[in-house]
Design brief:
Blueprint lengths: L1 H36 L3 H19 L4 H36 L7 H16 L2 H12 L3 H25 L3 H9 L4 H35 L6 H11 L3 H29 L1
GO biological process, one term: transmembrane transport
Protein name: Phosphonate transport system permease protein
Membrane topology: Multi-pass membrane protein
């Protein structure tokens, strides 16, 4: 029995030593790290106050004058996205008939057109605007062209998939009834194609609005460029207002496109 208590006492001493080392070693490392880096609770407390002051007095010290400064970039973003999606729809509408298996005149033409559209879409918008800026300069023109290029790739593939989903039995029935090509397109293809075209076009516009925020920061104009300029000039009040405008624009555009999509489709 006495031997048992001795062994128990030795075991307790070992555990106590291990616990001391488990506390002492991390504590020593922490103290050394704090001393080396100049860490202190006082600096944390003062830093928290500086964060509070920065958020309240600099980021959110907005006024009507600052609001007017971001109105023009907001309008530029909307116009840029709208023009780009209209041009993309016009080009993609034609290319889709060559990219769809059901309407392409030759399989090789379908492969080439699909590959072309995939290549346009694979390259990010930011890369496109960086390639366009040297030719057209910083501004809305470069952003519009970049959105048009990437949007054409997206809509061409999407429109082609809509065409491939068309019910061919209706087209065959029109052919059997003696309808010509124009009648087949007007009564067979377009009625089935228009809902998908509308839905994807609205999605393309919504995507352009969101992408414009990114491409604007690398020279594409609009709200993204306003944010980038504000950051460089340390005008955080302008940056905050531009971000709030951007979020509000996203919400409004998303609501409008959703309502239009539900009414038409």
């Amino acid at each position: 029995m006495e031997q048992y208590f001795k062994e128990f006492e030795v075991l307790c001493r070992k555990k106590t030593s291990q616990r001391i080392l488990a506390i002492l070693i991390p504590g020593t490392i922490t103290l050394w790290s704090a001393t080396t880096t100049g860490f202190s609770l006082t600096s944390i407390a003062s830093g928290l106050y500086e964060i509070y002051r920065f958020i309240v007095y600099e980021m959110f010290s907005v006024n009507p004058k600052i609001l007017m400064q971001v109105v023009e970039p907001t309008l530029s973003t909307i116009i840029m996205s709208y023009i780009a999606v209209i041009a993309s729809i016009a080009v993609s509408f034609v290319l889709a008939f060559f990219a769809a298996a059901s309407t392409s005149p030759h399989p090789w033409l379908q492969i080439v057109t699909r590959g072309f559209a995939t290549g346009l879409r694979t390259i990010p918008d930011m890369v496109w605007v960086m390639l366009v800026v040297p030719a057209y300069g910083i501004g809305v023109t470069a952003g519009t062209i970049a959105l048009f290029i990437s949007g054409t790739g997206l809509l061409t593939r999407s429109f082609a998939e809509v065409l491939e989903a068309i019910d061919m039995d209706k087209l065959n029935a029109l052919k059997a009834a003696g309808a010509n090509w124009i009648q087949i397109m007007g009564r067979g293809v377009l009625p089935q194609f228009l809902p998908g075209l509308t839905s994807w076009s609205l999605f393309g516009f919504d995507t352009n609005i969101r992408s414009s925020a990114i491409i604007g920061m690398v020279g594409g104009g609009g709200l993204g460029f306003a944010i980038q300029s504000g950051l460089k000039l340390y005008r955080f009040d302008v940056v905050t207002m531009a971000i709030l405008e951007m979020v509000g624009l996203f919400i409004v555009i998303d609501y409008i496109t959703d309502r239009i999509r539900r009414c038409i489709i």
